[in-house]
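Progress against Task 2.4 (sequence-to-structure conversion) is shown through the following example record, which the project officer requested during the mid-term review.
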Amino acid sequence: MNPFITLITTDGHPVRINVNHIVAYDRRSFKLQYGQQVAETYTYILVAGGSGCSRNVKQTPEEIDRLIDHAVFNIPFTQPQVKGA
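Structure tokens generated for the chain above:
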């Protein structure tokens, strides 16, 4: 079974991501345009599956770490019967 986590994109929509496809993620920020001094922070997630496959989410890397740990350690995996070649 593939463990999925649900995160919230920076525009407020839920996105489900297979944790086995996450390549990297880190916290980023940018200043809003038009002279505003407020910085917007988000987590950039790079996902395997093609050129430019990424997501920007509201959760912090630490929150994502906890979600991945929960998904990986609590979802039952079935062990396939492997036979010698």
